[in-house]
Amino acid sequence: MGPVSDKSAAIDHYCRVKGVNGLRVADASVMPCCVRANINAPVIMIGKRVADFIKGDC
What we know:
With 58 residues, the chain is an all-alpha fold. The protein has one domain (1-57). 28% of the residues lie in helices and 0% in strands. The protein contains one helix and no strands. It has one helix at residues 40-55. The radius of gyration is 12 Å and the shape is flat.
């Protein structure tokens, strides 16, 4: 994840895949670092946030 100007980032801050129209990533792979606990709740929150992006609420 990174800004539009970052050539090495695969997705932007709205979880849109760069260079692929209409594709978003909403899973644990968007987390900048690995947590040392159960990732169920954070992944659910990521999914909710990306759903809000898609709906246009944010």
